[in-house]
Amino acid sequence: MTKQTHAFQAEVKQILHLVTHSLYSNKEIFLRELVSNASDACDKLRFEALDNAALYEDAPNLEVRVFFDAEAKTLTIRDNGIGMSAEEASAHLGTIAKSGTREFMAKLEGEQKKDANLIGQFGVGFYSGFIVADRMTVETRRAGLPAEQGVRWSSEGTGEFELETISKASRGTDVILHLRDDEAEFLSTWKLKSIVSKYSDHISLPILMQKEEWDQEAGKQVKKDEWETVNKAAALWARAKSDITDAEYQAFYQQLSYDSQPPLAYTHNRVEGRSEYTQLLYVPAKAPFDLWNRDKRGGVKLYVKRVFIMDDAEALMPTYLRFVKGVIDSADLPLNVSRELLQESRDVKAIREGSTKRVLGMLEALADSESAEERAKYQAFWNEFGSVMKEGIGEDFQNQERLAKLFRFASTHADEGVSLADYVKRMKEGQEAIYVIAADSLGAAKASPQLEIFRKKGIEVLLLTDRVDEWMLSHLHEFEGHTLQSVAKGAFDLGKLQDEDEKKKAEETAEAFKPVLERLKETLKDRAKDVRTTSRLVDSPACVVVDEGDMSAHLARLLKQAGQEAPNAQPILEVNPEHALVKKLGEDPRFDDLAHILFDQALLADGGRLDNPADYVQRVTRLLSA
Ligand code: ADP
After folding, report:
1. What is the DSSP letter of 175?
2. Fewer Cβ in 10 A, N or C end of the chain?
3. Which CATH class, in words, describes the domain spanning 236-367?
């Protein structure tokens, strides 16, 4: 292949521009990114070589070398990993395959633009080289291909890159940065060493740099032929807990997650028994931008006896814990374990169960902590990840009870942080059910007419405003023997909470109201499933509820918004016979208009939409102009 010029994909051009301009204040991270790519390339080689040892050629020791030429102003990151073929170089260093590029760019342009962690998160680390270089040259040969099939990729990081075939004796990749004139500070062993130890100490491969010694005659440091390892080069999780500082745990987390904030909590254990493995698991403090993508790669990397196997091993964590980051290193799994095998393996099942319990344990420790500060941390966690945790209730039956205890809600007592256990403690004498109401927002929930009687009697109601809450309710039927009951569903029955006098009075009023009720039923027969009197209302004349077995109006709305079919269950109209408007209804000549308006307003108060708004407007106009 002679020299060929290719244009970058449009997105790459934009990324390049943004990366080089907005990350300048944090430019040293380019080395972290390139070393990390080199280390990944070595991991890939080790993995492929499990099936084909010949890939090691004559160099079985995987390593990364960092060196520079002060005169030529070049800095090279060399690895003897998997390397790239011409097609791979063109595809990987010229296009961006990943989704989320647009969000990435929006973030870089927005307030977070200084956040250098973003580029690692979005998988565009390679391009960070152009922050300090005005040309990057990559010389690479894929392991297993002959020396003549080496490739030179070269670009100034603007519109295009060049590819040509070269001969390259050693497999792997050299990334050569032609540093800009004002970036000479990176032509220093001391400087490079300090960056490596800051960001790359936890890379488990040796990162080698040339030793230097003082040359009296030349009056400067000169490089020797000897190379030394400048990082710790030991897998952090394999070291003894007592030897690892908090700062090291945090730095490792950064490297794994590219999160700019420290983790909320972590747990590190060696598990022995039926299945032997080490787990180092972190709970992040902030949700990632793609938390809602249930198909996204898991955050837990799988190693087998320190050998990296894969970094999206979904089988290791339940989906609802997809935000957990970390490493699991198994002593039992075969090195050539495949994804299919992972799904079926009993060892993996044991690891998954064990790891799930650890994560829940970590969260419980925060949630139930004596310290108010820790509990506040838990609330912050809940605000970020609560909606995802709720998925667990339908997914992880084994831990349903533990999960339910971790859940936090808003209620008529407090805007956040109410656990089911708190609720049960505050239940009134004679109260059996846990009352809940689901609505589109906290404001709408609080304003629900269905809450009126509960307010009056001081009975707490949980206010559920999360999209997944209705779904959660279909799996969480009870807590510690108390059923969860929606106050907007079914007939009103406070059971023992209502005294005999109240009940008797309500029955008498209902009896007297019967004739009007019949007229209402007749008038609204095409719109309401039923019309009945209720004592759940205090200030409002009417409200709508759905039958016990019917889908709530709120859930039906959510489904429709999501483009799904939802059954059109007719609501039941409940009227408050104590309300002045309702009391006069029977004698009013405008009965028909009033009945429809009563019904429409109850629908509106419930957050619903009118099928025929024009009809409503006409009726109200008629009333107003009478
Ligand atoms: P990411 O590493 O997150 O995928 P990068 O932009 O850093 O994103 O790299 C893009 C791709 O280029 C990598 O996924 C990999 O396939 C390839 N690549 C980069 N550096 C190397 C290297 N040193 N050896 C082999 N492949 C590499």
Report:
1. E
2. C
3. alpha beta
